[in-house]
């Protein structure tokens, strides 16, 4: 069985399926109950599961911190933080407790919590509703950082995240919530830590995730070369092997993300390629990213965000080198 | 209706055994002589553990250590009200409560030796490890109390924090969450009058710390935290209330008689006269006199208790030293995730190669 769903519907479908499958799953967050979430990602769930879907007080540290306790009692907390930058108000709970509970107790207490959060620009939202702090999350040992890029990917990755024994930050690109429909299989798990070769190619490897994957695929359409597009899907753990193998084949690479350039995940991927594929490189690796500026308000967000034109230009620079 | 009072609040304060040994017979909790002696022994156990730990730290055998000297009644009295399956969610100065709830002294020592082994929670023990960031752990207790309620279990979570912690937003968020979800949680604020060097008058403008609960809509009570009978009495009530879904904040008025941690020197910020005053109000001495006056505690029993404690501590110190000897550094890689991710596998291999190389 499968259904053609939008990404936001795939989120809801997955949450419903996991609530049905496992009595320990609890879905909670600001406005996720009666209102069904500000993006409607939890619409209707409270009607079917009034005892396991909860509107919370407006308290992000509370949402994250309470998850530590819920998990300790054997539950599977699936929290929504309404917008990713509001997670900064719960960041200390994330870094001090959620991420390290397993290691500091040597596995005797764990925190199998999933924090879903809409991220990224492109929907003309208010200030501080459009950030992409994935490198920050990936820098905290103990967390897994997961990015869906389509409705079917959402189903497979969110299912695995909720079932994961480790805490997961699940970054949902707001601009893709309603942008397209896709067949979404009913029972679908995608292992965390496995990249997807979205399009095979021979001349250059382009790595992109979340919202930037769509932009990258648009850019690639206009390029007269064989481009291999890789969606890492999880940034921690990162599937280094798939990216390294690809670059060993193509000899060229560009990495795309909408987060700021400095200390972004592209830098980490380049470092790993440097360690494992240096001698195969035929050109410097290009980063097509946001700028080192606070995510601008929406009048300038299109100027900030990498789009198909910038990505295409970046790919051409690498292809034309040497 | 131009103006009217829409809500009024009051703060109840309880004392059963006063400093001058007067006992309020109406309020005295129903504890057998054996139970009273157990309470006494638990207070002594923690006191001696702290004293030994400070000495070990001074000899370089332990890292920074936060003694609970002076706060034994506040903690033993509350933890003694818990059932075996209840949860204890401590801060970093909770030796008295931990020992009562079943933590072995050697675990406390291992933690103070800088080993995660000391924060392992044995199977079946309802506890979280010490929380170092001030005020962060009450939220976990709110989550536990909520989770237990969701699963129709009766267990409660009790969490400890200090006067300083109430200035952290998380403590309010925790009490507010607990109130909204009828969490089975007891919050214990040990007002020991100091947050490192900062006195309570600089911490808040409120008259009591108990009243912090009122804004969150949960019950509260203040108690003389150096009166173990009073503390036990309010803790029993609070635990039973929490079991039925009514969270409670207890403010225990006490005094941190020793340093904040072994890295601290209180003479920089408080007078020795003040310390002497509180020495006379010591919770163990007060309870000891009470037991002696009633013929429950005699010299022989005191000697036997002291001997048991010294023996236990001696073997705890040996045990902690042995675990330190056996420490496997590579373990730091093994508990970050359930399964070792490939990147960590590579780092572990490199680490082991480097360590192996050193031995050659």
UniProtKB/TrEMBL annotation, chain A:
- Does the keyword Membrane feature in the UniProt annotation? no
* Co-factor(s): thiamine diphosphate
Please give the Gene Ontology molecular function terms for this protein: oxidoreductase activity
> Where does the record place the Transketolase-like pyrimidine-binding domain?
5-179
Q: Where are the transmembrane segments?
A: none
Q: Which GO terms describe its biological process?
A: organic acid metabolic process; sulfur compound biosynthetic process
| SUPFAM superfamilies associated with the record | Thiamin diphosphate-binding fold (THDP-binding), TK C-terminal domain-like
| InterPro entries in the cross-refs | THDP-binding, Transketo_C/PFOR_II, Transketolase-like_Pyr-bd, Transketolase_C
Q: Give the source's domain of life in one word.
A: Archaea
- Asked whether the UniProt record includes Oxidoreductase among its keywords, one would answer yes
The alphabetical list of record keywords is: Oxidoreductase, Pyruvate, Thiamine pyrophosphate
Q: What name does the UniProt record give this protein?
A: Pyruvate dehydrogenase
Q: State the species of origin.
A: Natronococcus amylolyticus DSM 10524
Automatic annotation (TrEMBL), chain B:
Does the keyword Manganese feature in the UniProt annotation? no
Residues in a coiled coil are: none
Keyword Oxidoreductase listed: yes
Q: Which CDD domains match?
A: TPP_E1_PDC_ADC_BCADC
Output one GO BP term: branched-chain amino acid catabolic process
UniProt xrefs under Pfam families = E1_dh (PF00676)
Endpoints of the signal sequence:
none
A molecular function annotated in GO for this UniProt entry is: oxidoreductase activity, acting on the aldehyde or oxo group of donors, disulfide as acceptor
Q: Which domain of life is it from?
A: Archaea
Q: Which PANTHER family match?
A: 2-OXOISOVALERATE DEHYDROGENASE SUBUNIT ALPHA, MITOCHONDRIAL
- The name this protein goes by in its record: Pyruvate dehydrogenase E1 component subunit alpha
In its UniProt entry, the species of origin is given as Natronococcus amylolyticus DSM 10524
